[in-house]
Amino acid sequence: MTNDLKTAFEKDTLRLCWIWLNTNSDNNYKSYFRSLYKAYSLALEENIDKLHRELKYHRYKTELTTKLYIPKKSGILRPFTFLNLNDQIVYLALIFVIAEKLHKKAKKNYHKSVFGHLYAGKSSSFFYKKWTDGYVKYNHAINDSFNNGFKWTASFDLTAFYDSIDHKVLTHFLIELGITKEFSKYLTDCLETWTASSPNRIYHGHGIPQGPLPSGLLSEVILQHFDEHKSFKKSSVKYFRYVDDIRLLGKTEDDVRKALLELDYISKEIGLFPQSSKINIHEIVDIDEEIKTVSLPPEPIDFKLIFDQKKVQERVVELSRGNKIENETRFKYVLAHADPSEKLAKRLLAILKKNPHLYQSILKYFSKYKKFSKTVSKTLLEQIQTQKLYEEITASYLICSLNKVHKDIKPDFKKYCEILHKKRKGINSPNLRSIVFVWLLNENHFKFKEIESIYKSKEWWLIHNSLEYIDIDLFGEPSYEAILNVLLKSASFEVSIKAAFLLVENNLKVITPIKEINDAAQIILRKANLIGKTYLKKSSINLKLEEICGVKFPIMNWNNFLNSELKNCERLCYLLTGYIKTDANAFINELDVFNDFILYALFKHDTTIGTYILGKIGSCLTPGNRFATKYPNLFKLCETVHKLRLESDLSHPKVNSTGKPTRRIKFDEIRKLKLLIENGYKELISSI
């Protein structure tokens, strides 16, 4: 492992990244994870220690992400990506290493030509410098340049920038920074998983996930290529960049046009493309108006006006004449200070109908209500039923309506949710599926067995998100407690710790047998004194065998069985889960080695079957011997795998017993092996 990877995986780095995740100023992203962050913190040192060991011994595996698709003003969708908790820490740890190297090169441009995603340094409690400071200085820089005679301007914005970043281009710039090839390969492998289209698992060779904290800094690795170009060091043009929005100022139109051409060449050189519709070369007439188009300033509203609701409502009306919004930022700012009002609610629903991309701000206003009137409830339902294009908007309608709908309209809401629930397999949004489930759950629509089957879903995000909205009083404390106990057994790290956290927070009882509880949840429950002791399974071997075979295995204390060879066997199991999908030959060879270690441990544990020499697995594979008689299923597995290994062209040029050339192992042979693996290892576990 290279030094840069070692730095990323150090415990101190992981702890620092945990702090940065919790101080992230992007409340929109963080709000989805607040309760999970709290749950993780209940056993922080144990979680960090385990993550460190998995990374150090090559046992860590990234997971596919959850994506929401948010409608933009143009009507197309913007992906918003949610990583699981440990992936968030790992991603930030990797980018921390890059940030330290990039900072040495880029800091000279901070608050001079570059104003966004500025790394604050490892001594800071925040990953980025305060964004508002950068925004203010960005505006001042443009204003100062105008006053110095730079009257011509143009903006340059890249099309789908995050999604378009090519991993080979990224690797090129990382190596230029002094990052090793091994580190770059590890990062791009992670990115391939985090940008994949789930559930179809279509993997890309481009893109970085939109939403997570470190993506902004990673994008700077590409954008600094623009910053450092010699064309923008000339005195005839001023170059300013806030994130991926570049603003040029020149003394003549020709100066600006030449600089635009340079930007176009640079972007095409690295596989990026400008948004031609946003390029507008023009002479600045009013610098104050120009700055407003750049900085999108908040509404300059007197603080006292916040309490004068009549004036606030008048301003909302003024900013939305004919249900059209010219200045969206000002509209959002004023609306955030508005109190619930029947008249304003009707107007906002009409605005929302024509401006669906403003759904987050408008529906956030409705979240201030304790209860909706009959008229508002009815209008909301009508708009939910007619708005079928955007699933995230439908989900947000249902979230803001939860437990607030007028009693006369509630049956109609429930009926609509029942229709959606029946069609849930055709719904892409995990947000919509989860809130429909919660709506019906709070209305006592399901029997307990139906709830239990839904909560056995492998979609951790759906379960986590639904738990945010369950009303304990409506659902009933005994049922809520029972469901949380079911979720303690989940194989999902996030689901199990969320369940444990909610049991602790609500002072509920643990009724699940401790041995069946996920290890991570056990630690939380033990520290909260909800259980007396833990039975930690610790080893990942069971999970990997289950992943390979697609079936559950009985609990096994692999630590006691394998002793000093545990870490090596866990590493082999981790490799096997990758090879079973990609390389049949390598899978057979590694499985033969894994079986060798298992038999070495078994013969030491059970001396009645003879003695064993590690590395000599073939010597114990004689039919009818004591091993074959006592462990027939395990014997058959080891014998079959070893014969296949001897036929594999990764092992020898010829098969010793026949003299025939060795061959490539077929994936069909691997599929047939799964039952042998299941029977062999279940026999072993039941005997130990």
Description of the structure:
By secondary structure, the protein is mainly α. It has 34 helices and six strands. The strands form two sheets. A four-stranded antiparallel sheet has the order 4-5-3-6, with helices on both faces. Helix 7 (131-147) packs antiparallel against helix 13 and helix 33 (632-647) packs antiparallel against helix 34 (667-687). The relative contact order is 0.06.
Instruction: Please give the order of strands in the largest beta sheet.
Output: 4-5-3-6
Low-confidence stretches are 295-306
Shape: globular
> What value does the average pLDDT take?
89
Instruction: Please work out how many helical segments DSSP would assign.
Output: 34
Features:
56% helix, mainly alpha, 688 residues, 34 helices, single chain
